[in-house]
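Q: Start with the shorter request: fold the first protein.
A: Done. Sequence, then structure:
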Amino acid sequence: MQIEMKIRGLMVDPSTNMPIVILKDANSEALLPIWVGLFEARAIAMEIEKASGPRPMTHDLLKNIVDGLNGRLQRIVVSELRDDTFYAVVWMEQDGEAVAVDARPSDALALALRADCPIFVEEEVLRTAKVLPNPAEAAAESPELRRWLEGLGDEDLGKYKM
């Protein structure tokens, strides 16, 4: 079963200085943090902020290619968690046929934002990942990260800038 989630925020892990995308279950308070690379975080941040550069970024190019080939991005699915690495699948439709493409979650999320398509996470991924029931009950890896997540307010979840 797949659970629909939304991007709740983008921030920096204070202990590693790596960007984190926070996904939130649309029907509960559960949060799923996914650590991403700097370039992917920038692409996600730019789309969240509706900023654009002078030339198309890679994820803009990918969306333009799908559109140019008469395809439609249907959804992305964070499909697996193996050896502390998340995996994703981008689902597209072309000429009435469903096409699945393997992707890194960060790239899939950046593409989903541009295509305004839904984001899903496999229920098994949520069971095995360090899903945070809510910030007040966060069970993060380190006490420092746990304290940081517990102290987040709504104003913090949108302030990450690249």
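Q: Next, the second protein, separately.
A: Sequence, then structure:
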Amino acid sequence: MTATLSILTTYTSDGARAPYEDTVGKDGLLRYKFQGNPKHYTNSSLREAFNRKVPLIWFYGVNQGLYLPFFPVWIVAVEAEHSQVAVALDEAQRHLSSVEGPPSEIERRYSERIVRQRLHQPVFRQRVIQAYDASCAMCRLRHRALLDAAHIIPDSKPEGIPAVSNGLALCKIHHAAFDQNILGIRPDYRIEVRADILAETDGPMLKHGIQEMHNVSLTLPRRRVDRPNPDLLEERYHQFRAAG
């Protein structure tokens, strides 16, 4: 039992400074910081896990006292000069040459995609759904299996950060309608349905599910820090208006 079994990243609200800055390196691999003195037993057990190449569980905080587990992960490099270790989220990342030298562009992009898909997106989803109390911000549907964490600004753009303030808990139909610019959200948190959609005549889903959302106010998270960023909403609203 000399090697660590798990690592943990505590929950930190958006905008607050985390006690340990676990980040993604230039090679696309995650970095997990040592805790305090590099010679502390917890950090020695990280080195032992690297030497023995054993899998770990990474518990990632998504709310106070609530963690999302990722297993297996591996320590693939010890970077004592920076008081940190490099962590791989899948088997392919374990064997990238980037941990021993400069990564190729393909390797870096692959690692960044893996981190986004396997860590940032699941954490983002859980944090957003928790912030909205497992309820669609538009129609109040409370079936968690039918809810998505929608980005206001897509994560493919630099400003599309995986923060709760860049997210909305939406049911799948309203998420799709938002992505397709069938409806938009004004910076004052009111929903706007595109004019041509309002003029359509169709079945009850269009009438009650989409058209009746026009000018309805979003249900917002209780904590102000978790509410949609008005600047991001305004940017996204301009795209909605242009599409219409």
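Q: Describe the second briefly.
A: The longest helix spans residues 105-131. Residues 6-129 form one domain.
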